[in-house]
């Protein structure tokens, strides 16, 4: 057992030295553009996890929800407890199959985008979450070229996270981080309805 422990300690010392050398090359600091996409669950959850992390550091946060309607969600209930740190706007009319009105969906998406642009430009906000904006872009409710231009021109220290399936290639190209959630298994496929605290 002693030999195994000794070998492990030596391997970890070597790994630590290698890691310290690598970290010396990581010197850039700026606001990041992050995209959470893919068919798997967890895109919005990851974005809201970043909101919580930002609050932990005393940062100011803006949230715009593009699709989810006025129904109650755990994240909305929770972050409403931080009115001095979180500007939270639910702008969607609900899922597209619920509204069944393209013009209404486009109008809602455009209103949400106007709010998003204001938050991105606001120097008092450190982090902005654009929840489900990828869905609005997928259905061409917004002009992708305008969205890309605004994101590229954002203040240098502004972090922005975009969530939703089917992120456009133009967003993936300009993003600093892209995470694709992969669906392996989902309770919905087994007949479960959405569970409070897990799905919403």
From TrEMBL:
It catalyses: 2 cob(II)yrinate a,c diamide + reduced [electron-transfer flavoprotein] + 2 ATP = 2 adenosylcob(III)yrinate a,c-diamide + 2 triphosphate + oxidized [electron-transfer flavoprotein] + 3 H(+); 2 cob(II)alamin + reduced [electron-transfer flavoprotein] + 2 ATP = 2 adenosylcob(III)alamin + 2 triphosphate + oxidized [electron-transfer flavoprotein] + 3 H(+). Keywords: ATP-binding, Cobalamin biosynthesis, Cytoplasm, Nucleotide-binding, Porphyrin biosynthesis, Transferase. It is an enzyme of class 2 (transferase). The keyword Hydrolase does not apply. It is found in: Cytoplasm. Its main location: cytoplasm. InterPro entries: CblAdoTrfase_CobA, P-loop_NTPase. GO terms for biological process: cobalamin biosynthetic process; porphyrin-containing compound biosynthetic process. GO terms for cellular component: cytoplasm. Its EC number is 2.5.1.17. One of its GO terms (molecular function) is ATP binding. Pathway: Cofactor biosynthesis; adenosylcobalamin biosynthesis; adenosylcobalamin from cob(II)yrinate a,c-diamide: step 2/7. Required for both de novo synthesis of the corrin ring for the assimilation of exogenous corrinoids. Participates in the adenosylation of a variety of incomplete and complete corrinoids. Belongs to the Cob(I)alamin adenosyltransferase family. This is Corrinoid adenosyltransferase. It comes from Caulobacter zeae.
């Amino acid at each position: 057992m002693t030999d195994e422990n000794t070998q492990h300690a030596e391997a970890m010392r070597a790994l630590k030295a290698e890691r310290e050398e690598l970290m010396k090359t990581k010197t850039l600091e700026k606001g990041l553009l992050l995209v959470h996409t893919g068919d798997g669950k967890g895109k919005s959850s990851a974005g809201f996890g970043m909101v919580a992390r930002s609050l932990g550091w005393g940062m100011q946060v803006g949230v715009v929800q593009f699709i989810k309607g006025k129904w109650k969600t755990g994240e909305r209930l929770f972050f409403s407890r931080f009115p001095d740190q979180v500007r939270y706007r639910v702008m969607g009319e609900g899922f597209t199959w619920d509204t069944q009105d393209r013009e209404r969906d486009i109008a809602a998406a455009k209103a949400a985008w106007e709010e998003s642009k204001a938050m991105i430009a606001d120097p008092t906000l450190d982090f902005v979450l654009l929840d489900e904006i990828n869905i609005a872009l997928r259905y061409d409710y917004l002009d992708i070229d305008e969205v890309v231009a605004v994101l590229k021109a954002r203040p240098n220290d502004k972090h922005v996270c975009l969530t939703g399936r089917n992120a456009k290639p133009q967003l993936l190209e300009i993003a600093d981080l892209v995470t694709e959630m992969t669906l392996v298994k989902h309770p919905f496929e087994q007949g479960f309805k959405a569970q409070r605290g897990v799905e919403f």
